[in-house]
Amino acid sequence: MSNPAPVIIPRWEYRVFGEGFGEAEARILSHGEAKARSSAETYIVSSASPNNTKIRDGLMDIKKLENVNADTLEQWNPVLKAGFPLTPEVLAQVAAAWGIVLPALSRDGYSFDEFRAEIAGVHPQLRAIAVGKERFGLTVDGCIVELANLTFDGTPIRTAAVEHEDPALVIATVRKLGLDAYPNTNYIKALKRFAGIPAA
Asked: What DSSP assignment string belongs to 158-185?
Protein backbone atom coordinates (compact mmCIF):
# COMPACT_ATOMS: atom_id res chain seq x y z
CA MET A 1 0.00 0.00 0.00
CA SER A 2 1.41 3.39 -0.98
CA ASN A 3 1.80 6.08 1.61
CA PRO A 4 -0.69 8.96 1.40
CA ALA A 5 0.64 12.27 0.15
CA PRO A 6 1.63 14.61 2.98
CA VAL A 7 -0.96 17.24 3.85
CA ILE A 8 0.34 20.71 3.06
CA ILE A 9 -0.95 23.46 5.34
CA PRO A 10 -0.41 26.92 3.82
CA ARG A 11 1.73 29.17 5.97
CA TRP A 12 1.11 32.77 6.92
CA GLU A 13 4.08 35.08 6.42
CA TYR A 14 5.28 38.53 7.40
CA ARG A 15 8.40 39.63 5.49
CA VAL A 16 10.38 42.86 5.38
CA PHE A 17 13.16 44.15 3.15
CA GLY A 18 15.84 46.78 3.69
CA GLU A 19 19.49 47.42 4.50
CA GLY A 20 19.07 46.38 8.15
CA PHE A 21 16.44 45.99 10.86
CA GLY A 22 18.04 47.53 13.93
CA GLU A 23 16.76 46.36 17.29
CA ALA A 24 14.47 43.79 15.64
CA GLU A 25 17.51 42.05 14.19
CA ALA A 26 19.22 41.95 17.58
CA ARG A 27 16.08 40.47 19.14
CA ILE A 28 15.94 37.75 16.48
CA LEU A 29 19.58 36.78 17.01
CA SER A 30 19.10 36.68 20.79
CA HIS A 31 17.00 33.52 20.36
CA GLY A 32 19.90 31.22 19.55
CA GLU A 33 22.36 30.27 16.85
CA ALA A 34 20.89 30.55 13.36
CA LYS A 35 21.36 27.78 10.82
CA ALA A 36 22.89 29.05 7.57
CA ARG A 37 21.85 27.98 4.06
CA SER A 38 22.82 29.39 0.67
CA SER A 39 21.12 29.08 -2.69
CA ALA A 40 21.00 30.58 -6.16
CA GLU A 41 17.48 30.98 -7.52
CA THR A 42 15.70 32.49 -10.50
CA TYR A 43 12.40 34.23 -9.88
CA ILE A 44 10.04 34.71 -12.82
CA VAL A 45 8.00 37.82 -12.08
CA SER A 46 4.74 38.42 -13.94
CA SER A 47 3.27 41.89 -14.24
CA ALA A 48 -0.17 40.21 -14.26
CA SER A 49 0.09 38.21 -11.02
CA PRO A 50 1.10 38.39 -7.34
CA ASN A 51 2.00 34.69 -7.20
CA ASN A 52 5.51 33.47 -6.39
CA THR A 53 7.17 31.47 -9.17
CA LYS A 54 10.83 30.56 -8.95
CA ILE A 55 13.38 27.98 -10.02
CA ARG A 56 15.48 26.44 -7.26
CA ASP A 57 17.52 23.23 -7.26
CA GLY A 58 16.37 22.46 -10.80
CA LEU A 59 12.67 22.65 -9.90
CA MET A 60 9.94 25.05 -10.92
CA ASP A 61 8.37 26.06 -7.62
CA ILE A 62 5.03 27.89 -7.39
CA LYS A 63 3.37 29.36 -4.32
CA LYS A 64 -0.05 30.95 -4.72
CA LEU A 65 -1.11 33.93 -2.65
CA GLU A 66 -4.34 32.70 -1.04
CA ASN A 67 -5.28 35.33 1.54
CA VAL A 68 -4.26 38.62 3.15
CA ASN A 69 -5.66 39.29 6.62
CA ALA A 70 -6.34 42.45 8.62
CA ASP A 71 -2.78 42.40 10.02
CA THR A 72 -1.44 42.35 6.40
CA LEU A 73 -0.18 38.77 6.90
CA GLU A 74 -0.14 36.79 3.66
CA GLN A 75 -1.07 33.12 3.33
CA TRP A 76 1.00 31.26 0.73
CA ASN A 77 0.02 27.85 -0.62
CA PRO A 78 2.62 25.64 -2.40
CA VAL A 79 0.84 24.38 -5.52
CA LEU A 80 3.59 22.99 -7.77
CA LYS A 81 7.12 21.61 -7.78
CA ALA A 82 8.17 20.22 -11.14
CA GLY A 83 11.52 19.26 -12.63
CA PHE A 84 12.84 20.13 -16.07
CA PRO A 85 12.09 19.51 -18.85
CA LEU A 86 8.72 21.16 -18.29
CA THR A 87 5.86 19.58 -20.23
CA PRO A 88 3.09 21.63 -21.88
CA GLU A 89 0.73 20.42 -19.12
CA VAL A 90 3.03 21.79 -16.41
CA LEU A 91 3.57 25.00 -18.36
CA ALA A 92 -0.20 25.48 -18.48
CA GLN A 93 -0.19 25.48 -14.65
CA VAL A 94 2.74 27.87 -14.61
CA ALA A 95 1.03 30.23 -17.07
CA ALA A 96 -2.13 30.19 -14.91
CA ALA A 97 -0.02 31.21 -11.90
CA TRP A 98 1.44 34.03 -13.98
CA GLY A 99 -2.03 35.15 -15.10
CA ILE A 100 -1.00 35.08 -18.77
CA VAL A 101 -1.67 33.11 -21.95
CA LEU A 102 1.35 31.48 -23.55
CA PRO A 103 1.78 31.31 -27.32
CA ALA A 104 1.53 27.93 -29.02
CA LEU A 105 4.27 25.65 -27.68
CA SER A 106 6.55 23.95 -30.19
CA ARG A 107 8.20 21.39 -27.89
CA ASP A 108 7.07 18.36 -25.91
CA GLY A 109 9.36 19.46 -23.08
CA TYR A 110 11.41 22.55 -22.26
CA SER A 111 14.84 22.38 -20.65
CA PHE A 112 15.82 25.20 -18.31
CA ASP A 113 17.75 26.97 -21.08
CA GLU A 114 14.88 26.53 -23.57
CA PHE A 115 12.39 27.78 -21.00
CA ARG A 116 14.49 30.88 -20.32
CA ALA A 117 15.20 31.61 -23.99
CA GLU A 118 11.81 30.84 -25.53
CA ILE A 119 9.27 31.62 -22.79
CA ALA A 120 10.41 33.56 -19.73
CA GLY A 121 12.96 35.63 -21.64
CA VAL A 122 10.68 36.81 -24.44
CA HIS A 123 7.17 37.23 -23.02
CA PRO A 124 6.47 40.96 -22.52
CA GLN A 125 4.79 40.42 -19.14
CA LEU A 126 7.57 38.30 -17.64
CA ARG A 127 10.93 39.18 -16.13
CA ALA A 128 13.52 36.68 -14.89
CA ILE A 129 15.59 37.92 -11.93
CA ALA A 130 18.54 36.07 -10.41
CA VAL A 131 18.34 35.98 -6.62
CA GLY A 132 21.24 34.88 -4.44
CA LYS A 133 20.35 33.95 -0.87
CA GLU A 134 22.40 33.48 2.28
CA ARG A 135 19.72 32.60 4.82
CA PHE A 136 19.97 32.28 8.58
CA GLY A 137 17.02 30.48 10.17
CA LEU A 138 15.93 29.83 13.74
CA THR A 139 12.77 29.23 15.75
CA VAL A 140 11.11 31.87 17.90
CA ASP A 141 7.98 30.91 19.87
CA GLY A 142 7.35 28.06 17.44
CA CYS A 143 7.59 30.26 14.34
CA ILE A 144 10.16 29.94 11.58
CA VAL A 145 12.17 33.16 11.65
CA GLU A 146 14.69 34.07 8.99
CA LEU A 147 17.32 36.71 8.32
CA ALA A 148 18.92 36.69 4.88
CA ASN A 149 21.51 38.50 2.80
CA LEU A 150 20.25 38.67 -0.78
CA THR A 151 21.23 39.88 -4.20
CA PHE A 152 18.73 40.84 -6.90
CA ASP A 153 20.60 40.58 -10.22
CA GLY A 154 23.75 41.31 -8.20
CA THR A 155 22.32 44.22 -6.18
CA PRO A 156 22.49 43.58 -2.40
CA ILE A 157 19.44 43.78 -0.15
CA ARG A 158 18.43 42.12 3.12
CA THR A 159 15.23 40.49 4.35
CA ALA A 160 13.70 39.18 7.57
CA ALA A 161 10.58 37.03 7.89
CA VAL A 162 8.29 35.17 10.29
CA GLU A 163 6.21 32.16 9.14
CA HIS A 164 3.73 29.73 10.71
CA GLU A 165 0.41 28.05 9.92
CA ASP A 166 -1.26 30.08 12.72
CA PRO A 167 -1.62 33.77 11.79
CA ALA A 168 -2.19 34.84 15.41
CA LEU A 169 1.15 33.32 16.39
CA VAL A 170 2.88 35.00 13.45
CA ILE A 171 1.66 38.51 14.25
CA ALA A 172 2.39 38.08 17.96
CA THR A 173 5.97 37.06 17.12
CA VAL A 174 6.34 39.88 14.59
CA ARG A 175 5.32 42.40 17.26
CA LYS A 176 7.50 40.81 19.92
CA LEU A 177 10.54 41.10 17.63
CA GLY A 178 9.66 44.62 16.48
CA LEU A 179 9.39 43.74 12.78
CA ASP A 180 5.99 45.44 12.61
CA ALA A 181 7.94 48.72 12.39
CA TYR A 182 8.50 47.75 8.73
CA PRO A 183 5.81 47.10 6.10
CA ASN A 184 5.00 43.52 5.15
CA THR A 185 6.46 43.06 1.66
CA ASN A 186 6.68 39.71 -0.11
CA TYR A 187 9.41 38.65 -2.52
CA ILE A 188 7.36 39.38 -5.63
CA LYS A 189 6.51 42.92 -4.50
CA ALA A 190 10.16 43.55 -3.63
CA LEU A 191 11.37 42.19 -6.96
CA LYS A 192 8.79 44.24 -8.89
CA ARG A 193 9.89 47.37 -7.05
CA PHE A 194 13.50 46.53 -7.86
CA ALA A 195 12.71 45.95 -11.55
CA GLY A 196 10.30 48.88 -11.91
CA ILE A 197 7.32 46.61 -12.62
CA PRO A 198 3.90 47.82 -11.41
CA ALA A 199 2.40 45.54 -8.74
CA ALA A 200 -0.47 43.34 -9.98
From this structure: EEEEEEES-HHHHHHHHHHHTGGGS---
What's the chain's length in residues? 200
Instruction: Name the DSSP letter for residue 52.
Output: E
- Tell me the DSSP string of 114-158: HHIIIIITT-TTEEEEEEEEEEEEEEETTEEEEEEEEEETTEEEE
DSSP state of 89: H
Q: Which residues touch 123 (CB under 8 Å, ≥6 apart)?
A: 100, 102
What is the span of the domain harbouring residue 185? Answer: 11-195
Tell me the CATH number at 144: 2.40.320
Distance CA 78, CA 66 (A): 10
Instruction: Give the pLDDT of the chain (200 residues) as one tens digit per residue.
Output: 455 556 678 999 999 999 999 999 999 999 998 889 999 999 999 999 999 999 999 999 999 999 999 999 999 999 999 999 999 999 999 999 999 999 889 999 999 999 999 999 999 999 999 999 999 999 999 999 999 999 999 999 999 999 999 999 999 999 999 999 999 999 999 999 999 998 76
In a domain, 200, yes or no: no
Inter-axis angle of helices 167-177 and 22-29, nearest 10: 110
On whether residue 145 sits in a domain, the answer given is: yes
